[in-house]
Design goal:
This is VOC family protein. By secondary structure, the protein is an alpha+beta fold. It contains 4 helices and 11 strands; from the N terminus they run E-H-E-E-E-E-E-H-E-H-E-E-E-H-E. It is globular, with a radius of gyration of 15 Å. The model has no long low-confidence stretch (mean pLDDT 95).
Length: 179
């Protein structure tokens, strides 16, 4: 456990081919099932203070307590994912910490000198923010709010991974408005 931010709850991998990545993780590593959204409904997205409309595909699965996120950018919108790819990298891009008290944790982190770079919202009370803290690949820190439907979806994903037998390896994201 991080003595600063609690437990790392998610490992975020930026990939060129999300379908191939889901296949590898499920067949070779036995991780799944994957909950896949070909176009994540991100609202209020900003990168370095400017608004954009990203088109990102995301797949989520758990390996034990840790969630694995696969991310493929589908357009050329400025993002830390695009920066990572343009630097010639793929693979682990960020670690995420989850919070039920987003405003307090964000205030605490910015007071400690963390500088927000990219953020947005997925579902009600599902804000996220990435900080400019990468000292080597894979060390970008994300703070992700899980107080709303996104948190319920994350619980469903974790629960479905327990005892997963390999069947139905790719499933659609649940409708956040119904959670």
């Amino acid at each position: 456990m991080s003595r600063f931010l609690g437990e790392i709850r998610q490992l975020g991998y930026v990939v060129h081919d999300i379908e191939a990545a889901m296949d590898y993780w499920s067949r070779t590593l036995g991780v799944g099932p994957w909950y896949y959204n070909p176009k994540v409904p991100i609202v209020n997205y900003t990168y370095k203070g400017e608004s954009h409309q990203p088109h990102n595909s995301v797949a989520l699965a758990n390996s034990g307590f840790v969630q694995v996120e696969l991310i493929q950018t589908r357009n050329d919108v400025p993002s830390m994912y695009r920066d990572f790819l343009q630097a010639g990298r793929t693979g682990l891009q960020h670690v995420a910490y989850w919070t039920d008290d987003y405003d307090a944790d964000l205030a605490r982190l910015t007071a400690q000198g963390f500088k927000p770079v990219m953020g947005g919202e997925v579902g009600e009370r599902g804000r996220f923010i990435y900080f400019d803290t990468e000292y080597h690949p894979g060390t970008v820190i994300e703070l992700s709010e899980v107080a709303g439907p996104k948190g319920k979806m994350f619980d469903l994903i974790r629960e479905s991974s327990v005892g997963w037998d390999g069947s139905d390896p790719v499933r659609p994201f649940p409708d956040l408005s119904k959670l």
